Amino acid sequence: MSVLVKDVTDYLLADIDLPIDTVDTLQFGDSSQSVSKIAICFMPTYEVLEETINLGANFLISHEALFYHHTDTKIFAYDPIVQTKQDLIKESGLNVFRLHDAIHKMEPDMITQSIVQSLEWEEAIIERLPVATIIGGVDLSVESVLKHIKKKLNIDSVRYSGHLDQNCQRIGIFVGYRGGSQQTLPLISKYDLDLVIYGEGPEWETPEYVRDASYVGENRALISIGHMESEVPGMITLKERLKKQFPHTPIHFIDHPTCLKTF
């Protein structure tokens, strides 16, 4: 019996209390269509769409939005790049589903849990929270954490604030765009965090707080690893989970580098 697009999306959304304005919808396609192969990605770039089609997959599951805005509204419908991307999807008959809210609402959050697993810190978890996972009972320097992150996540470079020889015993991990002060500062205070690791956030918020805190003698540091870099492990975990649920359906993860380069 063939697997339908609806079978996969129903599985992904089962028992998840999604927000009213969820972005987790079938963006293109027909939920009753049979699935030939599934491709999974973090960012549905034009290149990723082409690779999905070349793989012979007719179903793409992406974490982030197709059209450069979180809610994927029609505000950029006039743009020729948006139109070209839409044309490629429609002409190919590709089904595209966005999985953003549900994967974060799984228990535990699959995105956060996956990066903790990648960093091999599962045994050091103190608490799992909706916006972060708290790590404790470790004795690490900022420099050693930087090297560990680069090695385990295969990242060429990361940005940080603080002192390289600073000791870290309590660490907060905030994936994706959870690096804003409203997310980080209450937990820095509550758990006396020595180090915040996040994907990204406004640079005038948490980084500037850490700079001032460090200047006046507080033991605070920050590592910014990049939005994509913090969430890709979760999409790879998703691939493995879907392979177990749909063992007869070929499933591929399509990797891609970040769009930002360093000079």
TrEMBL record:
Keyword Calcium: no
UniProt-listed SUPFAM superfamilies: NIF3 (NGG1p interacting factor 3)-like
GO cellular component, one term: cytoplasm
Residues involved in a divalent metal cation binding: H63, H227, E231
InterPro entries, alphabetized: DUF34/NIF3 (IPR002678), DUF34/NIF3_sf (IPR036069)
Signal peptide: none
Keywords assigned: Hydrolase, Metal-binding
Any one GO molecular-function label of the UniProt entry: hydrolase activity
A Pfam family that the UniProt record links to this protein: DUF34_NIF3
Family, similarity comment: Belongs to the GTP cyclohydrolase I type 2/NIF3 family.
Name of the protein in question: GTP cyclohydrolase 1 type 2 homolog
